[in-house]
Amino acid sequence: MPDTILGLDIASSSIKAIQVTGGMKGYQLVACDQVLIAQDEGIEGGLKALSEKISFQGNICISSFQPDHVSFHNLQLPFKDKKKIAQTIGFELEPMLPFSVDTITTDYTITNHSGKSRILSASIRAETLEQYLNHLSTHNLDPEVVDISGAPTAVQFASQNNEGNDALFIDIGSDTSSLVLFMQGSIILVRAFPFGGHSMTRAISKAKEISRKEAEALKYGAKTQQFAEVIKPGVKAFCQQIQNTLHAFRYEVMKEAAPKKVFLTGGGALYPGLPAMLSDFLELPVELFDLAKLTGLEMAENVSANWNPSLMNTALALALRDTKAKESFNFRIGRFAKERKYEQIKKELKRIAVYALIVLVVLSGKFFAGYYVLQKHHEHYQNEIRAIFKKTLPNVKRIVDPVHQIKVKLREIRESKFLPAESLGRDAVVDLLRDIVLRIPKEASVDISRLIVDEKRVRLKGFTDTFNTVDEIKNGLKESDYFTEVSISSAQHDRSADRIRFELIME
């Protein structure tokens, strides 16, 4: 059965989704849609609305972060070894960041391999990434890759068109626009700017003294040219920011960074007069593009009628992204690396067992076939078993008995997963839970959403009414004989529920 891949372009005001299937004949685009994010519902509300249009079941998910949440830095290191780079990059970034490197997740791309390594790093707050993944997990989405919006688009375009190798890619969003400079086969610069489709709408609304809803309708109407002078100052300021950024980059990092063309996408790029304005101010040719057409992607009939490249290019680039490629970024690393689930290992074990059974059946036919033919079959299935073993347990280098080794690994996983009945005993767990409940103040309004118990600590997550209540719960639990230390891991105001979301760790 072909893989189904879901590309999710999650922005501040909308979510765009592309669904493609991959088979022997390549990819086919089978679904595309977008939903607006209501301010009072957030990402989870948007995903819920999207799930009613596109099925999330059985998808390989690749999603993106907006670049305005990411801190970018260009570095130069005196070595090319990727392992050394990974070990060193945190120390290089520490004096450049306004917060501790222990609180961020950083990925990087190598922009130049000659002698020394030029590196473009991308850092995001771990707390922000965790919250983002939690939003997705509420809809059973566990992305293989979390990239940066705009970066995969440049990579995909450049892989199909040589003009993309010395080009500037601009994605005009609703509130924020991203800039990606792609040169010499690499992304060398990524920046975000506070300009977008809403900027143009506000300019029209203010100049004409009309509501933003009316201005939005007029912006894409038949008489768009009459608003050119109204929109032009904002576009000019945006282009000035781009030119200043490029000038600083050439002065500080790479003097030969001179793009020859601009490729434009994003919902804000739908304003008819925008490409011409950008071309005038940037003094570069500006061109809209269709990534689906460029890649020769086959479309289902129900999709082609609704396809809008400016809206969907970014989501499509995510869906077509190679999950193992390093030309772009992936924040599923470190403690956020996607874990291989127990069910997946169990499934692979069954497959290995089937292949092993086939080998035994083939060997039992030794009396009815020539030794040469039998030996060839045996080698084939042994290779299959080893290939599946390596895919399942890539870190195991020495393979002696793959079936036995994977059974041992499976047993280790079972033992490492905490199961209360096996680890502490049912009575002990009941006593622990009873003690926790009795020590939470009776008058406190508390909803416990998750309780995780292992042999070393207890994690309690839930919702309550005030920050003071969180302190009261903490102080109550401190009196327990079960715990030596109780700390507040996090406490935040959840706007969607108008309550305090908290997590306590008891050791």
Please explain how this structure is put together.
The chain folds into three domains: 3-336, Nucleotidyltransferase, domain 5 (2-Layer Sandwich), CATH 3.30.420; 342-416; 420-506, General secretion pathway protein M, EpsM (Gyrase A, domain 2). By secondary structure, it is of the alpha/beta class. The strands form four sheets. The protein has a six-stranded mixed β-sheet with strand order 8-4-1-2-3-14. A five-stranded mixed β-sheet has the order 11-10-9-12-13, with helices on both faces. Strands 15-16-18-17 form a four-stranded antiparallel β-sheet, covered by helices on one side. The chain has helices at residues 42-51, 82-93, 126-137, 151-160, 197-208, 212-219, 228-252, 274-282, 291-295, 301-304, 309-319, 342-364, 371-392, 402-416, 420-423, 426-439, 467-478; strands at 3-10, 14-23, 26-36, 59-65, 71-77, 104-112, 117-125, 145-148, 166-172, 177-183, 186-193, 261-265, 286-288, 298-299, 446-453, 458-464, 486-494, 499-506.
Radius of gyration: 27 Å
Classify the secondary structure makeup into a structural class.
alpha/beta
| CATH C-level of the largest domain | Alpha Beta
- Net shape: globular
Q: Figure out the total of helices.
A: 17
Q: Unreliable stretches, pLDDT < 50, 5 or more residues?
A: 416-422
Helix content: 40-55%
Largest sheet, spatial ordering of strands: 8-4-1-2-3-14
CATH architecture heading of the largest domain: 2-Layer Sandwich
Our estimate of the beta-strand percent is 25-35%
What is the CATH topology descriptor of the largest domain? Nucleotidyltransferase, domain 5
Query: Could you give the distance between the termini?
Result: 47 Å
| Main sheet properties | 6 strands, mixed
Q: Please give the domain count.
A: 3
Rounded mean pLDDT score: 85
Q: How many strand segments?
A: 18
